[in-house]
Specification:
The chain is an all-alpha fold. The protein has eight helices and no strands. The termini are far apart.
């Protein structure tokens, strides 16, 4: 299991997935389109967030890429679990805010991060629809369980 450098604490599934899959993918996408020809994630890591000039087009592309990435993570329950998804969205928002904070509309990185989280969580139809569907399933399951328990109690009383 991967660990953080601090006190050998194991990394969470979100940290591993974010660091091993999302960060290299988004970095390579940006380097390919907007960086010098020699640039890759392997040799420049995350420097693109400070070195690539800011543009609204790149910001929009980053947000679209994040939404597409989230939608295509898979139907595995690990990736659709609300806690995993929210933690992943918060990491993505924090990561991208280092670039997007250069938008004149934001005074601080925290503002950029909150706006990104809102776009990728609160106002993202895919996630809100998935959360609503999961809530309906939980409610139906609880209703079936209650009906089963009531039937069980009635059968014991006979």
């Amino acid at each position: 299991m991967a660990t953080n450098n601090k006190n050998n604490i194991p990394k969470s599934a979100v940290q591993v997935y974010f660091g091993d899959v999302y960060v290299p993918e988004v970095s390579n996408m940006i380097y390919q389109k907007y960086g010098p020809s020699y640039s890759t994630f392997e040799n420049l890591r995350n420097r693109w967030r400070a070195e690539i000039r800011y543009s609204l087009q790149i910001e929009d592309e980053l947000i679209l890429h994040a939404k597409t990435f989230i939608r295509t993570m898979g139907d595995d329950s690990r990736y659709t679990h609300p806690q995993f998804l929210e933690a992943f969205v918060i990491r993505v928002a924090d990561y991208l805010s280092a670039y997007i904070m250069r938008n004149p509309a934001y005074v601080t990185r925290k503002e950029a991060k909150m706006a990104l989280k809102s776009q990728l969580w609160d106002n993202f139809f895919y996630i809100q629809n998935m959360l609503a569907a999961q809530a309906r399933k939980r409610l139906a399951r609880a209703s079936r369980n209650a009906a089963y328990m009531a039937a069980l109690q009635r059968s014991k009383q006979k």
